[in-house]
Amino acid sequence: MADLTRLVENEVFMAFASYATIVLSKMMFMSTATAFYRLTRKVFVNPEDCTSFGRGENAKKYLRTDDRVERVRRAHLNDLENIVPFLGIGLLYSLSGPDLSTALLHFRLFVGARIYHTIAYLTPLPQPNRALGFFIGYGVTFSMAYSLLKNKLYL
Amino acid sequence: MADLTRLVENEVFMAFASYATIVLSKMMFMSTATAFYRLTRKVFVNPEDCTSFGRGENAKKYLRTDDRVERVRRAHLNDLENIVPFLGIGLLYSLSGPDLSTALLHFRLFVGARIYHTIAYLTPLPQPNRALGFFIGYGVTFSMAYSLLKNKLYL
Amino acid sequence: MADLTRLVENEVFMAFASYATIVLSKMMFMSTATAFYRLTRKVFVNPEDCTSFGRGENAKKYLRTDDRVERVRRAHLNDLENIVPFLGIGLLYSLSGPDLSTALLHFRLFVGARIYHTIAYLTPLPQPNRALGFFIGYGVTFSMAYSLLKNKLYL
């Protein structure tokens, strides 16, 4: 267990673990937001989901799409598309021995940018608010990927 | 290599590795299910995929959507949205030195809940079967995130 | 920090880190491709994204779908569905102490197959080019999962 104790003592790794957990919890919140809008607006995609609002033809009118629900779903998918690279590249970056303050700057910028992206998407704020959130997160991930490949490339 | 040997000797990490591999293999099965329904029901989205069923106008009639295919695709996307947080949070949780029996309870509940979710989605079973599968998996992931952030927060 | 130094000295792990970073960077490129086609073809899904092309009724005509954009989005989603299992299973496989040359064969085949899949999807090349790219990547991931579960199963 000695190595695990040491991994937990590694500050960059612990910082990555904390920020990754926060940004993943934020992403999971999107599922709740989708469920909330589906239930309050009575907008469903599966016939079995709206049986409590009526049966047969009466239920079919709830099988529809709604701007608000689709907006949350797009924000959720965009999260997935951007948080997956952050998790993979960030984990490997954390283990590659970067400077603590540089690593913290990357993690904080990413998490802040993704939270800002969600707020800009769901409000919605006028562009380029959402684009800014997107590109900061994107740039941070590429910066970690570049730092990894420059120093540690093994092909 | 000493540390890797020790990581492999760590029972919580090995349990996580086993359950993560199982739930990811289950998720990959969804691609096969989509391909199966697309081929047996002749429902395609890309023109190049149905050239063997006819060319030109004759092929275009296969470019359509189908309830069954869309259902599998929704189940697949829901898997992605929930398994990605489990992978990230679960890996960090496994390395944070939890009690083995507590960790096993988390991993088993999650994998069981996701398999149940897939069965409930594809059959489809009446609600709240699918919702139950979803919320058990969701709760397990949040429980690991809470345990991580409570003990190891480093911001 | 001794363990981290050793992890970085582990050749299989470093090879995994390099290939995972490459395939994730490739996946991130899909976001740029979507943005490129949306801007050059003036095809948007959010009203706030096309205000610079006109306001009110004038802007609404840009809220539409486009074959090219949808094709890039499908390729992106397929990447997510396949790269997530590769990341999870590949990381655990790398830590399970496989033979270096076997591991390299897996990583190279996967990354090559996914790049080929993207080219076949976006060009588009006639089938079975895309299916070939898909199934090689799929098979590589299952081969790593099988090797993990056979040797290291802990349930």
Automatic annotation (TrEMBL), chains A, B, C:
EC number: 2.5.1.18
Annotated SUPFAM superfamilies: MAPEG domain-like
Transmembrane segments: 12-37, 83-111, 131-149
Leader sequence residues: none
GO biological process: cellular response to lipid hydroperoxide; glutathione transport
Superkingdom of origin: Eukaryota
Protein role: Conjugation of reduced glutathione to a wide number of exogenous and endogenous hydrophobic electrophiles.
Family the UniProt entry places it in: Belongs to the MAPEG family.
The protein, known as: Microsomal glutathione S-transferase 1
